[in-house]
Design goal:
- The chain is an alpha/beta fold.
- 36% of the residues lie in helices and 16% in strands.
- Helix 1 packs parallel to helix 2 and helix 5 packs parallel to helix 8.
- It is globular and about 50 Å long.
- 38% of the residues are buried.
Length: 269
């Protein structure tokens, strides 16, 4: 694992933000869904098997305007397992919007993201969740795929994109395309999530002074459904998003608050 802070002179020793009430659950799993009807039941089975009979988690399946039977499968899963919740868009909005909707509705103290296509293995999540939970000064654990189960073109294009990304953002992330990530809920909710920003969450967190480490994860070949991303249909959009992130790096201002006096129960005390 490696750790990078982009602006160490601005980083604060940030602890969990105080809340008026404790989170209802230990963690929430967020899965954006777009036309993945054949993957959803096996995905739920793998997640349920990984966490067995634990009841302190939830799975939020966010349907991004699917045109297949994904919405009905999500409703069936939610009816059969109380830990499953469905969020449904009226039309397709993109992966960042689906991720944002999941974050807004999550009830867990920690939030994990993963893809619906079965290429992420939920069995990698317990170690990542344990690492985050046991490290109070840590705010995110992001996965990097140690052995990509993709074709040569996708692997080479990803390598070029990662190097270009690191050069422009002045950050270092091994595998920005890996969806398997775990965050403290209060930290991820501080980020501006506009379209395309799901690719840059570790860097955006570091820009805001949060601590991020990387963790090795496995990668599975796609066994059902069709990939929604290709080199041609995402390269230009990703580059434009990258320019926006580079601009944000110079514009973000973090408040150097050193102390806040505690609230008093009674102003007359």
């Amino acid at each position: 694992m490696k750790q990078t802070i982009v602006h160490p002179e601005l980083a604060l020793n940030r602890q969990a933000a105080p809340t008026s009430s404790e989170p209802a659950l230990a963690f929430s799993l967020i899965v954006p869904v777009f036309n993945e009807e054949d993957c959803l039941r096996p995905l739920h089975a793998r997640i349920a098997s990984t966490f067995r009979e634990r009841a302190d988690w939830e799975l939020l399946l966010v349907d991004d305007g699917s045109t297949d039977r994904s919405p009905q499968v999500i409703r069936d899963l939610a009816a059969a397992d109380a830990r499953v919740r469905g969020v449904f868009f009226a039309h397709n909005c993109g992966q960042t919007s689906a991720t944002r909707a999941g974050i807004q509705h999550a009830r867990g103290a920690m939030i994990a993201t993963l893809d619906a296509d079965l290429q992420n293995d939920p069995r990698d999540l317990p170690a990542m969740l344990d690492l985050l939970a046991s490290s109070p000064k840590l705010h995110a654990v992001v996965g990097y795929r140690v052995q990509r189960e993709d074709n040569l073109v996708r692997r080479l294009s990803s390598r070029v994109a990662n190097r270009t990304r690191d050069w422009l953002t002045k950050d270092s992330v091994r595998d920005t395309g890996c969806a398997l990530k775990v965050f403290r809920a209060f930290a991820i909710r501080e980020l501006p999530l506009f379209e395309g920003m799901h690719r840059f969450l570790p860097t955006l967190m570091r820009y805001h002074g949060f601590e991020v480490v990387e963790h090795p994860v496995s990668h599975q070949p796609r066994r059902a459904g069709v990939s929604k991303y290709g080199v041609r249909n995402r390269a230009w959009r990703a580059f434009k998003d990258l320019i926006a992130v580079r601009w944000m790096r110079g514009r973000i201002r973090r408040l150097p608050i050193a102390e806040i006096t505690p609230l008093r129960a009674d102003p007359k005390d």
